[in-house]
């Protein structure tokens, strides 16, 4: 099988490590994606060299997680995670292994990995080293733990969410023992840091096979372990009704708020420990989708929609309506014809307003007038010319006689 160009770019790193007497392989998701014939995203490398030894060999090394054996090697403007072969100790806090041991054999490193499809190594010639028969599971389209599922999920319950995430991304089935263990041990998910859950949940709702993955959330009662959903089980129906992937968590929370306006959006975002930016994005989407429901697509709506939310906005309309003919082109077309793109483009300032209404005290009315002008320009009611604006605002708000 032909190697993805991304592997070719990284081969010098394997060679360099080998020339210094160490073993080095491509591992993890990139090997899986290669065997699936999918495009490869980021490339992870495993080596017998310790982080200090890796640092001694390469000139540009960023020590991102030395205690876990991981450094980033920069090569030709690309970043590669290079991780020392390791085994994990106990996971007594369900978050991080208490200790990691560096080991000298690739097989030991592969044995700590979650699923057989993720536990293969590939050398620089493209030969696959596959002690847990991941290639066979790729052919059978099965997600199966490396080793005893109950042990592996006990060690790190996040693997249960990861299993469903891979169902969503790959459309695979879950091997029977693996699935039974998830059902039995799903409550351990409660112990995990919410931030870790959020990463896997987001990848799940974004998977091409999300409609295959989400029913498992009910079957194994994963919903019962997740913030917001465990407190309000009825909300799960909105995610279960998805007929296509979303991409980002703020799209999920916007969807929930639109479906159930009585929900406290800020509280939901807080329970998932997501950022203020996530809240702002969700909130904006909720407001603009509600404007869309009332008035359809118009200049004023698109003016308020940040470019970074165009795609999310369309995706949510797709999810909310059976028939939607709004595309990115439609939105970009409206946006490109807007007379102004922000309030700073308005040919009239706060000072101009103050000059017009000289015998009034300063106050929030100034901003309100500016906003009225802004909206009138965007909707096409008013030209963005100083004189037009002056006459318009005076006619809307005739000055009091002194
Ligand atoms: P993606 O394409 O989404 O990056 P990935 O398989 O590369 O998928 P990562 O989360 O980047 O997933 O992890 C890289 C590799 O590390 C995995 O393929 C797997 O071998 C191993 N791994 C990651 N998380 C765990 C875990 N919780 N337990 C065991 N092994 C894990
Ligand atoms: Mg990865």
From TrEMBL:
Residues where Mg(2+) binds: 42, 44
Catalytic reaction(s) noted: a tRNA with a 3' CCA end + 2 CTP + ATP = a tRNA with a 3' CCACCA end + 3 diphosphate; a tRNA precursor + 2 CTP + ATP = a tRNA with a 3' CCA end + 3 diphosphate
Function noted in UniProt: Catalyzes the addition and repair of the essential 3'-terminal CCA sequence in tRNAs without using a nucleic acid template. Adds these three nucleotides in the order of C, C, and A to the tRNA nucleotide-73, using CTP and ATP as substrates and producing inorganic pyrophosphate. tRNA 3'-terminal CCA addition is required both for tRNA processing and repair. Also involved in tRNA surveillance by mediating tandem CCA addition to generate a CCACCA at the 3' terminus of unstable tRNAs. While stable tRNAs receive only 3'-terminal CCA, unstable tRNAs are marked with CCACCA and rapidly degraded.
GO molecular function: ATP binding; CCA tRNA nucleotidyltransferase activity; magnesium ion binding; tRNA binding
Organism encoding this protein: Paraliobacillus quinghaiensis
Signal peptide annotation: none
Keywords: ATP-binding, Magnesium, Metal-binding, Nucleotide-binding, Nucleotidyltransferase, RNA repair, RNA-binding, Transferase, tRNA processing
Entry-linked Gene3D superfamilies: 1.10.110.30, 1.10.246.80, 1.20.58.560, Beta Polymerase, domain 2
Positions of transmembrane segments: none
Main enzyme class: transferase
Residues that hold ATP according to the record: 29, 32, 113, 156, 159, 162, 165
Cofactor: Mg(2+)
A biological process term (GO) from this entry: tRNA 3'-terminal CCA addition
Superkingdom assignment: Bacteria
Domain annotation tRNA nucleotidyltransferase/poly(A) polymerase RNA and SrmB- binding: ranges: 171-223
Any Pfam family matching the protein: PolyA_pol
Family per similarity comment: Belongs to the tRNA nucleotidyltransferase/poly(A) polymerase family. Bacterial CCA-adding enzyme type 3 subfamily.
Entries under InterPro entries matching the protein: Bact_CCA-adding_enz_type3_sf, CCA-adding_enz_C, CCA-adding_enz_firmicutes, NT_sf, PolA_pol_head_dom, PolyA_RNA-bd
Name this protein carries in UniProt: CCA-adding enzyme
Span of domain CCA-adding enzyme C-terminal: 255-392
SUPFAM superfamilies noted in UniProt: Nucleotidyltransferase, Poly A polymerase C-terminal region-like
